[in-house]
Amino acid sequence: MPSAYGASAYIPIAIFVAVATGFALFTLVFSSLIHSEKYNKVKLEPYECGIEPTTDARDRYSIRYYLVAMLFVIFDVETVFMFPWAVIFNKLLLFGLIEMMVFIFILVVGYYYAWQKGALDWV
Amino acid sequence: MPPGVSLSDFYYILPELVLTGGALLVLIADVLLPKERRAALAWVTLLALGATAAALVPFANTHVEVAHGLLAVDRFSLFFKILFLLAAAITVLMSIRYLETEGAASPGEYYFLILCATLGMMIMAGGIDLITIMIGLETMAVSFYILAGYIKPNQRSNEAAVKYFLLGAFSLGILLYGMSLMYGLSGTTNLRVMASAFVGQEKDPRLMLAVILVVAGVGFKIAAVPFHMWAPDVYEGAPTPVTAFLSVGSKAASFAMLIRIFVEGMPSMSADWRLLFYVLSILTMTAGNIAAVTQSNVKRMLAYSSIAHAGYLLMGIVAGTARGITATLIYLMIYSFMQLGAFAVITLLRRKDVVGDELKDFSGLAFRNPFAAFAMLLFMLSLGGIPPTAGFMGKFWLFSAAIDAHYYGLAVIGVLNSAISLYYYVRIVVFMYLKKETSGSDPVITPALALVLGVTVMATLVLGVYPQLLFRVADVSARTLGVAGITAAIR
After folding, report:
1. Which positions ≥6 away from B418 have C-beta within 8 Å?
2. A116 and chain B: CB distance < 8 Å anywhere?
């Protein structure tokens, strides 16, 4: 059925895009025409789930990107090795299991070291 | 058990397994030991190195290929493994006081990385497969990238790490490209299978390109001119014991890799690579020595001297004979002792108020610490190649190997370069013995540093007077490669 993949198949999507854009534009333009401009203190405060704000929201905090990236690499590499291992596990059997245990053991030592050195203590 | 692996393979890599276990033990001990007992980590590291050396004993006469030609356990790799373990042990002994002076936060990481670098070197020396060599090289190189920047508050140390990392990665790319061509043209990554596949392809331009790329990649690792630009900055910026280990261990491992790749993997192409190394050798010796003359920082001077020594060492490779390879092995061992000793003296001069690597820090050392000054005198004479030190014996063997292979010009240039090098080596001696004393606290020798200086001084003297044992061992090691057969192919 080549026709199902032709340009006509995109017509519903085009309608959807037009309606979505039109609705957004209509709402913005219409409300700006009819709303009143009265401000007060509460109205100008940043919205924080209804709780009264205590400090400035623009605070600097460390996301420890370096350590997060390092830990990510450790577990990412682990997964990279584990996927092919899992696929041919039925051929590797006990040997493969022991090899993977050794591999994970070495990673766990590194993880334990990072943990004890405070790499996981946030901020 | 999958095909291609057997339990006996694990028996043959016992030293590597022991070293891996030791490295993990150091890491765990760093966490478990209370802060005031952290000094014991150095001894745990030495224990791991000792256990690895003990694990080498059963393989003294072994000559096998492990896991269908991934690793070779033979005399050649054994020679290098002993060299690496000695260098690592001396480096650890040197590091104890240096780390205390620098106030390094976690010595466990430092010793762990030293052990990892040693492991990588051991794999490089044993590797007869491009993939194994690559893994060993990376294990070593990544450890060194981190070690070079180990003194975190020091900007020079940071600069050294970044420079070494960027140029290391760049050179690795070149090396890998050459290796991929070798693999593409032979259909195998095993060097010994490759050697027979390349017979009769000598005129293939793609193979020549592969040779050029691999020579360039290896040239970076041994710091041969014109691929040496990283070496002075990295050597100067890195912590002194790391510089010592880098200039000895990394260089020796790269030479092991070079010999494996070219002598074992591409003997039929020897006319090409010997010509390239011939040019590199002359350039490296000459540029290294001339640049060293103008240096006022001793670490930087030793860096250029180390570059020049790469040039001397290449003479043995250029000769291409069993005698040439033997000479390279002998000189690597001798060079390790004198280079490590010289850096140990610089480590000794590191105090709270003095960095200890400027030429003026050496002035009057003979009056402040006669033993250290005498040791330094000996290392400088040995590096310059003056009898009765070991350096003379090593150079003699290298030059005679070059003459033996009819490279008279190369030998003459080598001798002339030795003469140039004496200028800057003797300059340190002048500062130590003839200059007036300077202010600052006197350097104190700790027992560990005394042991380091004792061993290196003894080795420099004994190998200069009685070199027969080392010669025999190096000869046997070089011959396990089957260089004799390769020489027949060359001639």
Report:
1. B384, B385, B395
2. yes
C-alpha–C-alpha distance, residues B330 and B325, integer Å: 9
Using DSSP, state whether B72 is helix, strand or coil.
strand
**Is the separation of the CB atoms in B186 and B211 below 8 Å?**
no
- SS3 label, residue B122: helix
Indicate the pLDDT class of residue A44, thresholds 50, 70 and 90. Answer: confident
Q: Are B273 and B196 in contact (CB under 8 A)?
A: no
Q: Buried b / exposed e across A85-111, counting CB within 10 Å, b at 16+? A: eeeeeeebeeebeeebeeeeebeebeb
- The pTM (predicted TM-score) of the whole model is 0.86
Are B11 and B55 in contact by the 8 Å Cβ rule? The answer is no
Q: What is the mean pLDDT of chain B?
A: 90
The per-residue pLDDT for range B184-238, each reduced to its tens digit, is 999 999 998 898 888 888 888 999 999 999 999 999 999 998 899 999 999 999 9
- Cα of A15 to nearest chain B Cα, Å: 52
Please check the confidence at residue A91 and state whether its pLDDT lies above 60.
yes
Question: Rounded to an integer, what distance in angstroms lies between the CA atom of residue B329 and that of residue B363?
Answer: 35
Position B207, amino acid: L
Count, residues in chain A? 123
pLDDT for res B429: 92
Q: Which of B117, B8, B22 is nearest to B68 (CA)?
A: B8
Q: How many CB atoms lie within 10 A of CB B165?
A: 19
User: Under an 8 A CB cutoff, do B24 and A109 touch?
Assistant: yes
Q: How far is B31 from chain A (nearest CA, A)?
A: 7
Is 0.85 exceeded by the ipTM?
no
